């Protein structure tokens, strides 16, 4: 009997993207990649009130460039996109 999967493993069978996209909610990002909290914190993002917003909406409201935030998330160890090239990330 397999143990119950959590985090990324629990959703693998749903074929969700393995990288963070701008249309994901902050709650979804943090649920899938808890390590993302530190990166979001550097941009003053990720508080409980931010959770229901998509990353692109949240960045727009805060006057941030979503591409910069996405790149920081994708480059962070343990967060979506780690180990993928920019070309691979663009094709996911």
Structure explained in plain terms:
This protein has 92 residues and is mainly α. The protein is built from 6 helices and no strands. It has one domain (8-90). The longest helix is centred in the C-terminal third of the chain and has 10 residues, at 66-75. The model is unreliable at 82-86 (pLDDT under 50).
Give the key terms.
92 residues; mainly alpha; 6 helices; 45% helix
Number of separate domains: 1
Q: Rg, please?
A: 13 Å
Percent helix: 40-55%
Strand content: under 5%
Could you tell me the number of beta strands?
0
Q: What is the approximate shape?
A: globular
Span between termini: 31 Å
SSE order, one letter for each helix or strand: HHHHHH
Structural class: mainly alpha
The parts where pLDDT drops under 50 for at least 5 residues are 82-86
Report the total helices. Answer: 6
Biggest pleated sheet: none
On the 0-100 scale, what is the average pLDDT? 77
Secondary-structure blueprint of this entry?
Elements: H1 8-11, H2 26-32, H3 36-42, H4 55-62, H5 66-75, H6 86-90
What can be said about this structure in brief?
With 92 residues, this protein is an all-alpha fold.
């Amino acid at each position: 009997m397999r143990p119950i999967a959590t985090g990324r493993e629990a959703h693998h069978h749903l074929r969700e993207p393995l990288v963070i996209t701008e249309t994901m909610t902050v709650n979804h990002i943090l649920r899938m990649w808890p390590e993302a909290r530190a990166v979001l914190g550097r941009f003053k993002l990720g508080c409980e009130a931010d959770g229901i917003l998509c990353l692109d909406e949240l960045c727009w409201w805060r006057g941030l460039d979503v591409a910069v935030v996405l790149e920081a998330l994708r480059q962070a160890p343990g967060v979506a996109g780690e180990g993928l090239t920019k070309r691979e990330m663009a094709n996911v």
